[in-house]
Amino acid sequence: MTAKEHTNLLSIFAWIYAGIQALVVCLYLLFVIVYGGLGIAMAFTAKQSDAAGLIFWGVIVLIFAFIALMGIICVISNVWMGKRLRSGMPPTQRSMIVTAILNCVSWICGGALLMPFGIALGAYGFWFALSDVGKAFLEGREFQPNYAFPANPQYHPINQPMQNQDQPYKWQ
User: Structure pTM?
Assistant: First the structure.
């Protein structure tokens, strides 16, 4: 596959993953809004002895808000990376690696539903960012493969007769 085909696949997968994760993040945000509103309502009607319950409620809401924020960051980075891979200005290698890391850990923002796809997309992004084809594409140059063996199979080392020059004796 060429670098352009890899970037097309990565951008399509990044956009699909961003869409799926945006739906899951909306559910987390709905949870934060509903439970945050309930927590505020409880705070106005609480007695002095209910303080520990309110603090626990607030901590839970803050944890889910943090998870939703991480999901939003991952969605934005995937949309941005997909757009940059299709544009004339490719992303940097560092931004591809950061997005791949976010994709690998983004199962936290979506649970088991997003885990296999996110890890696969992150691994594919890592491979592309660290491969010779990807490095050449991200630097804006054409990839020139460096083959160790000549293209003509008759000169391939496996097709040459074996010569034992290390042995001083000729066994007959």
Answer: 0.71
